[in-house]
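Friendly challenge for the regulars: who can give me the structure tokens for this chain first? No prize, just bragging rights.
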Amino acid sequence: MGLVASKCFGNRFRLQRGMHTRAVRAGASPNKSGSVYAVMVSWQVKPQCINEFIELSLMDAQGSVGKEQGCRRFDVIQDKKHPDRFAYCEIYDNEDAFQHHMTTDHFNAFKSKVGDLVVGKEKVSHCKNVYPTSPETCWNTKNDVKADNDDYFKKGSLHVIHAPKYVKPEMADQFIKEIVADAEASCEQEPGCLRFDVFQNITDPGEIYLYEVYANEDAFGYHMGTPHIKTWIEATKDMYQESREEMTIEEYQNSVTRIGRNVWPPDNAGWSVY
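First reply, four minutes later:
Bragging rights claimed.
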């Protein structure tokens, strides 16, 4: 799909934001403060087990969003370059809601089987949202669409960035200021940017997750040419840690970053932040 087509597709999503707002606004914010509890997970799956892992992930994700009152989202992402790499972005009202999640039948069924499908241990980060924080933010997966009745929407055509950045702890606040400026400009000025969430690890404040969703890959290419991302890159170039877990910071980030398609929820499930 060319850039012109990507802009049209992005504009279509932009126009739909108002409709999504009215459809889910009543349950958009978990509480008046606008805070959520985010769990960011990265997996390495055995190549021969990819399909089984996807089925197991869908069971847990759909059960979580459909049955748990405190679970707002449970996004499942598959890396494009490395199809055996996956990520979750789980959004809960608070830590108590996450603790409840771990007592559910669907989670325990997932837990009992997933160990045989993966390589090594998953990376899990427990985070707070630093952007957006408005009580008007829509964190919900939209449940009133009949997405599962039509395979067209289940292809996973969105382009999702699930990427931690590792910043010197003393620079974390300044880094957040700079990335929030980029995120705000991306959501407000780019027709193909559906959401740009920023999360900070609760116990490791130098780990800051960028969770970006674009209408397609061309929309992300458009983002990379914008003046606001150039400003962010220049402002933060000296803020990063040099190494982590005996790897260079570039090697470590590449091992835990996931960039690719949405496995679930489907394309028409209300991805917009508005």
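The first strand starts at residue 37 and ends at 44. Residues 3-24 form the longest helix (22 residues). Your move, everyone else.
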